[in-house]
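Attaching the record inline, Q. Sequence:
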Amino acid sequence: MKLVIGIVNSDDAGDLLAEITQASFQATKLATSGGFLKMGNATILVGVDDEKVDEVIGIFKNCCSRRTQMVSTTPPFMGEGFLSAAPVEVTIGGATLFVVDVEQFMKI
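Structure, as predicted:
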């Protein structure tokens, strides 16, 4: 058995969970944040048999697209009267996946 741990953008989490459920897998969603933009993320945990790992990874690929977003480069502590820098385009979205072995699994 494997545990697929996926860190995804919060905007993608709802569709991802719907697809995982529709494919008859069970998942747990944890609200998380961090990264360069300090944006909301979701960490999705999916316990899966070894032979189904590629199917779960495929669902992540289908639901978690990369896209670009404009972000201000002016620090938040700079008040009025300061010139703001031009916004920059950054890539967001996608997924970071970890697949780890599960030594033991039980429902209590």
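The helical segments are 10-22, 53-63. The first strand starts at residue 2 and ends at 9.

More tomorrow.
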